[in-house]
Structures are given as structure tokens and as C-alpha cells.
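Bumping with the actual sequence this time:
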Amino acid sequence: MNCTSCHLNGGRQPNAAPWVGIWGAFPGYRARNARINSLQDRINDCFERSLNGKTLPYDSNEMLAILAYMHWLSKDVPTGVDIEGRGFIRITAPQPPDMERGKKVYADKCAICHQPDGQGQYGPNSEVIFPALWGDKSFNIAAGMARLNTAAAFTKANSLLGKAITLTDQEAFDVALYFTRQPRPDFVKKLQDWPKGKKPKDARY
């Protein structure tokens, strides 16, 4: 996984959690850790969860480069203003999501890119072409994408690259249920999440 596995088109894609305008959205309170988070905190949260990796020192060249890029993307967005397409779309499933239906949707429409075993595709220098959706190289159980609603919304808006949206809301939920429930890394600090409540209903733990 890398940052643009979810934040598509260099963090500029609407409805794929774009970074445009994010500079003016932090600091901000998060119920997940029940405290005010800086943008550095939020970046490191992704490193630990979505990338299943380690945090960056705040003064590291890598952290400063990420911050500089996000600042540049946000330069024309007033502080506190939400751009169109920030975050993810909101969809609902007409019926309860179903694993078997999701398995079929995955085989028919997703496996060609993410592979039948969900392990993704990589280039000659191990660069990510299509990210793994489960297994050791995928996001861990505490990532936002491990939540059903988030995964379904992202899949609905951003799957099947180069084509018009062809998944129904129901198909998006079915296939999201299928791939989010596959084996993936654990997160040892997961029991520290939501210390003051407000845990989402679709959290994996």
C-alpha cells in the first residue's frame, strides 16, 4: 500500500478523500482517540493503520515533504471551507450486505485488477499498480477502509477505472463486505480506540 492507493490521483480525486483543502481542516477533534489531532497526527494514523507501518517523526524530511505537498494542494482553499467531493460519498444498501453475492461481484469485476487472491498487482520495481485488498500487504483491521461503510462508498465511486460507475449501491456493499472480512493484519493498539465512546457500528472490533 501507499498513500495514493486510497487518495487517488495524487490526493486530488473527488470522493477519494482528497487532500485539497485539508490544510485548513486541522487541528481537529477525533472521537477515535478522543483528543485534538494535528495534521501530523492524522498522517501518522494512516501510516500505522492504512499502510500498516510505522509513524514518522514530525521533523523528518518525509513528514515535512508530505505537509508541504498538502499545503500546496490547499493553497487556494480558504480555511474551514469544504471542497466538493471531500471525503467519500454516502450510500445505503437496499438489502443487508451478503458475502456470497460480494464474492461473485469481486470475481466478475474486481479480480482482473486486484487479482483473484486479493494480493494486487505490482510493477518491476515493486511499485503498487493495484493495491492488495487483503493479506499481509494490505491495510490492517484498524484502517478506515476496513470499515464496511467506508469501503463500500470508496468502491462505488472509484472502482472500475476508466469506466462509468457500474456498481449499484447493493453491489458496492456486497463486495465491500467480502473483501473487508478477508484476513488482514491486526492492530495491537486497537483496544485504545474510542475511549470516550462513539465507536461506529461498522468498526471491525
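The C-alpha cells above came from a reply further down the thread. The mean pLDDT is 95.
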